[in-house]
Amino acid sequence: MIVTSCCLKTSVQSAGQLPRDGFPQIAFMGRSNVGKSSLINRLLGRKGLARTSKTPGRTRALHFFLVNGRCYFVDLPGYGYAKVPRPMREEWKGFVESYLEGRGPDLAVVLTDARRPPTPLDRELVDWLRAAGVPHTVVLTKADKLSRRELLPASRQAGAALGLPSDLPPLPVSAVSGDGVPALWRTIDDACSRRRSPEPVPSSDDDGASHRPNPRHQALTTPEIPASRRMRP
Ligand code: GDP
Question: Taking the model in full, what pTM does it have?
């Protein structure tokens, strides 16, 4: 997709504020400082649109960027930031889960740092997305920090740690060099075109049906596991 326009459409802090206009939604998630804002900016070809964080974990909102008037990039707050008080994490977890389980994204892009093994929280997130049937793909950020020779084993090891099938390892990407960005765009384009017809805009007396689990969700990666797991705050 050639990005001709993008803007921050809305920042959402509760389920009632979520957009209901039916555009495809691509959600970006990963631990604080993983390079999420930098990657979003790189994909959109805009500097500083998604704010690179000086204070990880501070922003407690879902940011919806409307791209080409046709799909949303949804910037979820980084997780795993210990300074956020536990009750806030609990409250936040409930909101994020209700977003993901409800209308949810058409694709969740999970970011993990190429230089570090995935954390238990990363694994928990991927397991959770799989169990909830949310289509997802995993990328290894900051790939420019590793040599070509280091990248393949790093990707294989991260894939194994996250329980991905061996033929679908995480995609190395770099916000600095742009490596992997065209391949990630292809995955995003595919996810956008799978959602052919927009959902009808609900009337004002809508009973919240758009937040119920959506049967269209199908995991892109691995087989189902029992849906008993829940994300930790
Ligand atoms: P966020 O907290 O996940 O949004 O992470 P940021 O996008 O703010 O990035 C965190 C730090 O990693 C910043 O210092 C970025 O400059 C750096 N960074 C992000 N992406 C890359 C990348 O692809 N390559 C390199 N070398 N550094 C990166």
Answer: 0.83
Protein residue with its CA nearest to atom 25 in ligand 1:
142
Q: What are the residue ranges of helices labelled H in 54-119?
A: 86-101
Indicate the number of domains in the chain.
1
Please give the number of the atom of ligand 1 that sits closest to the Cα of 52: 8
> pLDDT digits over 83-113, tens only?
666 666 776 777 888 888 888 899 999 999 9
Ligand 1 centroid distance, CA of 187 (Å): 22
Residue whose CA is at the smallest distance from ligand 1 atom 6: 35
In a domain, 187, yes or no: yes
Distances (CA, A) of 134 to 76, 106, 128, 137, 229: 15, 7, 9, 10, 14
Q: Which CATH number do you get for residue 170?
A: 3.40.50.300
Asked whether residue 149 is assigned to any structural domain, the reply reads yes
> Domain containing 38: what range?
19-198
